[in-house]
Amino acid sequence: MAVLERVTRLLNRLFVFCGGMFLVGMILLTCANIACRAVWEPIRGTFELMGYFGAVATAAALAFTQINHGHIAVNVLINHFSPKTRRCLNAFNNATCALFFAVIAWQIGLKAHGFMQTGEVSETLRVIFYPFTYMVAAGCGVIALVFVVDLLRPLRSGPGDPP
Amino acid sequence: MSAAVVGLLGIAVLLAVLFLLGMPVGIAMAMVGFGGFCYLVSFNAGLHMLSSVFWDTFSTYGLTVIPLFIFMGQVAFYSGVNEKLYRAAYKWVGHIRGGIAMATVLACSAFSAICGSNAATAATMTTVALPQMRKYHYHPKLSTGAIACGSTLGVVIPPSVVLIVIGLSTEQSIARLFYGGIGAGMLLTLTLMATVVAVCRRHPDWGPVGPPTTWGERWRSLYGALEMVVLFLLVMLGLFFGVFTPTEAGAAGSLLALLIAGVQGRLSWKGFLASVRDTLKISCMVIVIVTGAMVFGRFLAVTRIPFDIADWVVGLPIPKVAVMGIIFLIYIIGGAVMDALALLLITIPIFFPVASELGYDPIWFGVTITVVTTLGAVTPPVGATTYVVGGMAGDIPLEDVFRGVAYFLPAYIVCILILMMVPEIVTFMPHLLR
């Protein structure tokens, strides 16, 4: 459990760093495109690169957002439930969300594998883009891990601890 | 079971998952949409749809506008811009009765022009404006009510994440929605300020007169707010004249905000990193909800429920204004129990076709429902903005904050009624757009 938690934390930090780099990259690329368009001609492929950068930035932040409780939930009723009921519901949520994101990671991974096998390239730049698809799959995999850690944490801390 | 029944069942299951399990909204929508799609089509088709929607939505160029505008707002937030804006507004209207509360609303309105987040506006305005209002013995209900309600302008005045998401999900021009939001935001600012005047007329001791300021001080105070005016003008004029796409406006605005903050030495490295982290977190939250809504939308499209409901509503023997009134009522109630963005994304596939069928301008509808749902940000039981103000106000009980907010609720209703009677307030500027 401790190892899993450490691995998840490490992966999360790595992905947040990646996401931040891609976010800054998006700003610089778009501004460079505006400048180049004004004085000469636009940077080819900005449109599709922005899409790929955005995909990686979002997927990289999935786990970080979950760890910081950034994903919006409706807690109007939940807050009135007993701690035991809330623990059960949390466990159910974490288990289903972990499974769901594992399925998404697996499916997007298959998609990336398909892009790699067929040598699919982007429309404008004619370059491979499966690494971005793999990174999105990995981002979904890391959030699945976060849910697994959240699911297992109460088992380690004991049933008497607050949820 | 017919597809329509499965669709209705899907909506019921979604509500149960949201309210009884407390699952994150975006994930819940994706999960229920996936389950319903698998049931109606096939499991393999469901798996394929799920991966396609996630990859396609995450890599859509249109969505890249979200992190860029959020980053611009975060940079402004971490460089302490709203302190300057508040000081300028305070110098201009602080000397009249209730003036500091009005200055707070004006500062919120100005900060909204660069930051589309209610929570960020509420947090900083509580820090900046509340001590001033305490110093001049403003009543806690008036001071906290003005901050909480003023902060809701963040999602109405462009650039607004909610307007961006409405634009993307209804395939309307984001630039037109932004320009529509200016009229609605200004009207809401005026009705909120009028509320301060009305409250102070009834309770003169709630908003005592502030210290007098000279004209020289007032003009000098504008200097501190000037760069933010430049930033706002760059974004809005660039969009107006077609120089930028919304994404480019967000990127240019972000870079300019960084340059301004950097040159003035107001943004530390720590602040920059915090801006990046917050941007990633907020934009990821928004994009996950959008993606979940896309998956749920695919399921609803298979059931044809949105179209059936639109046909049914249009055929009802009641005036279209009454239909719109009912829709707004649903949004007001819905907004009180769940986040505005999530509510809009769940309901837009159903209500947008209805509004279109009834002949309402899509830009007007998008902007007006933003005003309607923003009401939910200050009303119990959810009222996220009120909780932020209550949490940061410390010694002021949350009940008093909610009571203070209650004084401002008629301002929203008046604003919505005016928007219904004079839709040109919203539609005039978007129609001038190239």
Could you explain how this protein is built, in words?
The complex is a heterodimer of chains A (163) and B (434). By secondary structure, chain A is an all-alpha fold. In chain A, 76% of the residues lie in helices and 0% in strands. Chain A has 4 helices and no strands. In chain A, helix 1 runs antiparallel to helix 4. The longest helix of chain A is centred in the N-terminal third of the chain and has 38 residues. The relative contact order of chain A is 0.16. Chain B is globular and about 70 Å long. The interface between A and B is large, with 55 and 57 residues.
Q: Which two chains form the greatest contact, residue counts included?
A: A-B, 55 and 57 residues
Based on DSSP secondary structure assignment, what is the total number of beta strands of chain B?
Answer: 0
In DSSP terms (H or I, runs of 4 or more residues), the helix count of chain A works out at 4
Helix content of chain A: over 70%
Residue runs with pLDDT of under 50 for 5 or more positions of chain B:
none
Multimer state: heterodimer
Number of helices in the DSSP assignment of chain B: 20
Structural class of chain B: mainly alpha
Q: How is the main sheet of chain B built?
A: none
Low-confidence stretches of chain A: none
- Termini separation of chain A comes to 18 Å
Gyration radius of chain B (Cα, Å) is: 22 Å
How many DSSP-defined strands of chain A? 0
Query: How would you characterize the largest beta sheet of chain A?
Result: none
- Rough shape of chain B? globular
Report mean pLDDT of chain B, rounded to a whole number. 86
**What is the rounded Rg of chain A?**
20 Å
